[in-house]
Amino acid sequence: MTTTRTICTALLALCAAGAYTLASAKLPAPSPEAAAKAAEAAAKTAWAGKVDNYKLCLSQDKVAAYYRKTTPSAKPAASAPACADPGPFAYTPPPPKPAEATGSPAATGPAPGTPTPAAASASASKS
Questions:
Q1: Core vs surface per residue 32-55: b (16+ CB within 10 A) or e
Q2: How many other CB atoms sit within 10 Å of the CB of residue 30?
Q3: Does pLDDT of 47 surpass 80?
Q4: What is the 3-state secondary structure (H, E, C) of the chain?
Q5: Which residue has the higher pLDDT, 7 or 111?
Q6: How close are the terminal C-alpha atoms of the chain, in Å?
Q7: pLDDT at position 127
Q8: CA-CA distance, 80 to 33, in Å (whole number)?
């Protein structure tokens, strides 16, 4: 009975270690299309939050107006900013990065300490 329990415990530990290994695997960087799609989804989610806040503001104003109308002892409304309508959803993707900003070796120039062709010809003409 104890050997069965020991085997079960060892098997459970092995399964847990395997699950941890799979869960801690690093995913590759998303493609530019996937990154653009994620950015658009984030913008749409932010806009939906603004629409929800606008609708909440309208309903609160409606409830407050009804309360002031039906309650004679209600104090007048304090000055509060009007509800701001977020308007229709509009997403403009950011412009693509130019070649200089990508950090490619061709765009950044030679490595420090590497003579350039102009410097090499200048040192050859001095001798």
A1: eeeeeeeeeeeeeeebeeeeeeee
A2: 11
A3: yes
A4: CHHHHHHHHHHHHHHHHHHHHHHCCCCCCCCHHHHHHHHHHHHHHHHHHHHHHHHHHHHHHHHHHHHHHHCCCCCCCCCCCCCCCCCCCCCCCCCCCCHHHHCCHHHHCCCCCCCCHHHHHHHHHHC
A5: 7
A6: 90
A7: 47
A8: 43
